[in-house]
Design brief:
Strand order of the largest sheet: 2-1-4-3
Oligomer: single chain
Structural class: mainly alpha
Bound molecules: zinc ion
Distance between the termini: 32 Å
CATH architecture of the largest domain: Orthogonal Bundle
Number of domains: 2
Number of helices: 7
Order of helices and strands: HHHHHEEHEEH
Radius of gyration: 39 Å
CATH topology of the largest domain: Helix Hairpins
Shape: rod-shaped
């Protein structure tokens, strides 16, 4: 038959896990929303680059059309120049040619600027190609994993809640009352604290040597002098670490 202490340790482990699962389930909506937000931000940062490239391409096409128009006008102005019959007509044609040439060279400079933007965005899109191609599928997988874990958390929660009842009913009423009092009082839900490195793992108080010896050699219910929680030493871990040391 199990000692009272080991039953309490089991109860505590169950309660700690239940608490963790409950928290996971309760925060699921919030955590899912955060994941969605992260994905949206990620996707929109990529869309932004793609849009910048698209805009530059559209501007470039527009400038090319303007150059074509200007060149048609230039042809006409050149014809006017050759057919000019007086100085006035000649000068007017020259002025038009001059203005159109300036327009063309201005547009050409602007095209170079747009080409630079296209090059830069292409480079970034190229570098991030894998990420962009897998964005949707990665996201779907992440969401699927999330839902899977949540379902498993809910199943485990239901199972442990039932098991907990059995463990709890097996503990003497006096200790059950002590346990309940400690657990409702503590913010972290710890009533039974493990001793690690001769310290109470709940309040981090160093324990007296005599207390450690008692904890290691008896199954008595001993409490921390500082936080009053029930203490225990995980002997299996002690033995393991001793075995590794020697
Ligand atoms: Zn303590």
């Amino acid at each position: 038959m199990k000692s009272e202490l080991s039953k309490l340790v089991e109860l505590q482990k169950t309660d700690t896990r239940i608490r963790q699962l409950k928290n996971n389930i309760e925060t699921a909506e919030e955590r899912r929303a955060t994941l969605e937000q992260e994905f949206e931000q990620h996707a929109s940062s990529i869309r932004e680059i793609q849009n910048t490239k698209k805009e530059a391409e559209e501007k470039k096409t527009d400038l090319e059309n303007r150059i074509a128009d200007a060149k048609t006008q230039l042809d006409r102005a050149n014809r006017n120049l050759t057919t000019a019959t007086d100085t006035k007509q000649y000068e007017a044609a020259m002025r038009e040619i001059d203005a159109l040439n300036k327009q063309v060279s201005g547009h050409e400079t602007e095209i170079l600027e747009q080409l630079e933007i296209i090059d830069e965005t292409d480079k970034v899109l190229d570098e991030r190609a894998d990420e962009i191609n897998n964005l949707e599928s990665d996201w779907e997988k992440k969401l699927k994993d999330f839902e899977k874990e949540l379902r498993s958390n809910k199943r485990e929660y239901n199972k442990l809640t039932k098991e907990r009842e059995a463990v709890f009913s097996d503990i003497s009423p006096r200790l059950a009352a002590v346990y309940n009092r400690l657990i409702t009082r503590s913010r972290d839900g710890i009533a039974v604290a493990e001793v690690k490195n001769s310290t109470c793992s709940a309040c981090f108080m160093s324990l007296r040597k005599q207390m450690i010896v008692l904890l290691k050699t008896t199954d008595e219910i001993l409490t921390c002098e500082s936080c009053t929680r029930i203490l225990y030493v995980d002997n299996s871990e002690e033995e393991q670490s001793e075995a590794t040391a020697s």
